[in-house]
Structure formats: C-alpha cells, structure tokens
C-alpha cells in the first residue's frame, strides 16, 4: 500500500503526519502501532519520535491520535498538536480549530510568528490534574508537589502531574542537567516498576532568569527527545507553583531543539497552559509499504521544505546562543 507522509517538527521533536481524514487507508490500531515502530526507527530512511494520525471527528474539526516510536499510544502530544493544528487549519483554510484528542477537545490557533518566518501555532494543554491516580503513580498519598521519592533520588524534589499525559518534573541545578541522573531515573520509571505502571515522561528544569527556563525531557515510549511540548507546559506550571515564574505571563522555554512560549492560566482552581511555538515541515514523501510486514518499505517522491528548514536553523541558532550564555552566566 502507498501512504502519503508529511515529516514535521515542533522544537525538533519530529513526527510523521498520516492523514486518514482525506485518505481511505483503513488502518487498524495494531497496524498504526506497527507503522510507528517501523517508520520511527532511526536506522531506516525515515526515523522520528512518533506518528500523528489525523482522523475525521464526529464532534469537531479533526481528531489526532499519537503513537510513540515504541508503538504505544499517548493521550496527548503538545509539539505534535501544533503540527496537526497547522495541517488541519491549512487544509480547511481556517485560522483556528478544535481538535479531538484522547481525553479532550482542544482549541488551536494560528499565531504571529514566534521568530521571523516560522509558522507558529498556539495549542491548549488541558486538562491538568495533580491526582496521582490520574498518572498513575502508586504512592500512599493523593498528590506529590515538591516531594521526595527515595527510590528515585535522596536529593531531588519531584512534582507529578498529568496534562493529561503523565509527567514527573524536578527543578534542578546546572550540574544535574549534565549528569547521568535523569537517564537512570527515567529508565527505571519507564521499565517494569511498582511506582509508574504505565511509565512517565521525566523532565529536569533549570530556571535561567525570570520568565525563562530550560527543560530537558526523557519521553515515555521514545527516550530523550529534543523537546516535549506537554513536558514544557507541565514544567512551566511547576515553576509558577514554586514562585519562580508568574501565571498569565509568557514564559520562554528553551530546549535542545529551539524554544517555545508557555502561558499558564488558572480559572476557578483549574489550570491550563497555552503552548505557543513552531509547526514546521521538513519534507513530504510517499512510502510504499507492505502492511503485513511494515518494516519492509521504500521511500519515494521525497520533497524537502528547503526554505522552512533554513529559516528554522536561524531560530535554533538564536535559541542556543541565548541558552549557552544563560547557562554560563
Ligand atoms: N512529545 C510529546 C509527547 C508525546 C507523548 C509522550 N511520549 C507520552 O507517552 O506521554 C509532546 O510534545 O507533548
């Protein structure tokens, strides 16, 4: 069978979009998971952090399903939703839309460019919960805000929250960013363990200056990625809870793939986050794949988005210069 792919990224967190809204591919969930494992494999001609399936929605403009590189399905993906937002808005010639995701219908909107000539979208990150049963995290308490988990670390304080995919966030010093600690903790909580039976996305956050943070994330189902949109949103919220940043005020979030902007909202005790950043295309192609054995495929008619790639490199340079200066200040 032939599948049309668009390779896209949000802050270097890269995905394939497969449009099941306009094409009758008739994929089963088993096939979607197998395609994710096959196409995301970086030792092939493709390679990515996940696949974003765009489907018809009975309720709103479109539906997004996210499959991680290991074939597991995630309830949400912030960087991916920005790419799907662009794809759907351009396809329907609209400026804003509502996208159905596993746990919520979310508002998305085209925005002024975050950096010169960078297609930019705002996506709603919601619902937020601090209840441990929502992650799940098995501890004898209802929530964990700046609390210790001695099995993981004697020193670090963690906050656990779902947005609605599960996140474990620690505010750390510069030395801890570069250490092996995050890898060890992340591999433990994403292996067979009694704390997080479904695994968790693990973020280390380094405040840079007021309104500016750096976030590095080990993603469930993937490993370290350049950036994770839901993690940057969850981390921004955690810095507001700690008085490091302010709600209703933009927070510039630097990552290994660039930067985004987050605005934390709270209304009637309920939090949500606006995640604003690039929705960039890298190339489109056709993949001829044997669906019975998806690891056998050939990539055809590949077309690069050369101007977008060049423009994004400028944003990346700007972000990494700022990050280097701030880390060494
Ligand atoms: N990179 C994504 C999150 C993708 C899902 C995550 N790995 C999970 O399993 O929860 C983002 O930008 O939010």
Protein described:
By secondary structure, the chain is of the alpha+beta class. It folds into 2 domains: 2-125 and 278-327, Diaminopimelate Epimerase, Chain A, domain 1, CATH 3.10.310.10; 132-272, Diaminopimelate Epimerase, Chain A, domain 1. It is built from 6 helices and 18 strands. It has helices at 29-39, 78-92, 174-178, 181-189, 229-241, 306-328, and strands spanning 2-10, 13-19, 50-55, 62-68, 73-74, 96-100, 105-111, 120-125, 158-162, 166-171, 201-209, 212-219, 223-224, 251-255, 258-267, 270-278, 280-289, 297-304. The structure holds ligand LBFN2T5F. The ligand N[C@@H](CCC[C@H](N)C(=O)O)C(=O)O binds at residues 13, 66, 68, 74, 77-80, 165, 201, 219-222, 225, 228-230. This is Diaminopimelate epimerase. Belongs to the diaminopimelate epimerase family.
Number of helices: 6
Identify low-pLDDT runs.
none
- In CATH, the architecture of the largest domain is Roll
Gyration radius, rounded = 19 Å
Beta-strand content estimate: 35-45%
CATH fold descriptor of the largest domain: Diaminopimelate Epimerase, Chain A, domain 1
Structural class: alpha+beta
- Describe the biggest sheet? 18 strands, mixed
- What is the 3D form? globular
What fraction, in percent, of the residue positions are helical?
Answer: 10-25%
Distance between the termini: 54 Å
**H/E element sequence:** EEHEEEHEEEEEHHEEEHEEEEEH
Output the CATH homologous superfamily of the largest domain: Diaminopimelate Epimerase, Chain A, domain 1
Q: Could you name the CATH class of the largest domain?
A: Alpha Beta
């Amino acid at each position: 069978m032939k599948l049309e792919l668009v390779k896209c990224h949000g802050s270097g967190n890269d995905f394939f979009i497969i449009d099941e809204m306009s094409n009758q591919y008739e994929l089963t969930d088993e096939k979607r998971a197998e395609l994710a494992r096959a196409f995301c494999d970086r030792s092939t001609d493709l390679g990515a952090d996940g696949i974003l399936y765009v489907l018809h929605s009975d309720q709103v403009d479109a539906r997004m399903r996210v499959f991680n590189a290991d074939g597991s399905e995630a309830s949400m993906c912030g960087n991916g939703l920005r790419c799907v937002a662009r794809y759907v808005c351009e396809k329907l010639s609209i400026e804003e839309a509502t996208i159905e995701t596993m746990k919520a219908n979310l508002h998305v909107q085209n925005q002024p460019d975050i950096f010169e000539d960078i297609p930019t979208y705002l996506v709603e990150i919601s619902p937020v919960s601090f209840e441990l049963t929502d992650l799940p995290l098995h501890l004898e308490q209802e929530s964990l805000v700046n609390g210790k988990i001695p099995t993981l670390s004697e020193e670090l304080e963690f906050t656990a929250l779902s947005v609605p995919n599960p996140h474990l966030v620690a505010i750390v010093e510069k030395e801890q960013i570069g250490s092996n600690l995050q890898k060890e903790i992340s591999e433990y909580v994403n292996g067979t363990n009694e704390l997080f039976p479904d695994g968790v996305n693990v973020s280390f956050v380094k405040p840079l200056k007021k309104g500016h943070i750096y976030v590095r994330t080990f993603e469930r189902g993937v490993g370290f990625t350049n950036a994770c949109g839901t993690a940057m949103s969850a981390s921004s919220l955690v810095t507001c809870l700690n008085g490091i940043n302010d709600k209703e005020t933009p927070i510039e979030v630097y990552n290994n793939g660039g930067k985004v902007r987050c605005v934390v909202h709270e209304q009637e005790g309920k939090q949500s986050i606006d995640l604003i950043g690039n929705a960039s295309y890298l190339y489109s192609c056709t993949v001829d794949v044997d669906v019975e054995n998806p690891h056998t495929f050939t990539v055809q008619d590949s077309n690069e988005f050369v101007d977008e790639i060049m423009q994004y490199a400028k944003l990346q340079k700007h972000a990494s210069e700022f990050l280097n200066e701030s880390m060494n200040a």
